[in-house]
């Protein structure tokens, strides 16, 4: 793993929503110095988009596969 244990923190929360369905989320926090070391800090030129976006079909296919795996409608 590129991060030391003290450089990353994650939280998880879940509960039952107003519609009666379970929901949850994760929050991941990484120390800025660790991102800088990997060239991922927003202040570094390497963190900027330098090429074209993937074609529209790429995103549509990812959503189709996600629905197929979970059996849910996104």
Q: Mean pLDDT across all residues, rounded?
A: 83
User: How many helix segments?
Assistant: 2
Question: Strand count, sense and closure of the main sheet?
Answer: 2 strands, antiparallel
Question: How is the largest sheet built, in terms of strand order?
Answer: 1-2
Give the end-to-end Cα distance, rounded to a whole number of Å.
Answer: 31 Å
The secondary-structure class comes to alpha+beta
Descriptive notes:
The protein has 74 residues and is of the alpha+beta class. 28% of the residues lie in helices and 24% in strands. It contains two helices and two strands; from the N terminus they run ββαα. The protein has a two-stranded antiparallel sheet. The two termini are 31 Å apart. The relative contact order is 0.13.
SSE topology:
Layout: E1 8-16, E2 22-30, H1 32-37, H2 56-70
Antiparallel strand pairs: 1-2
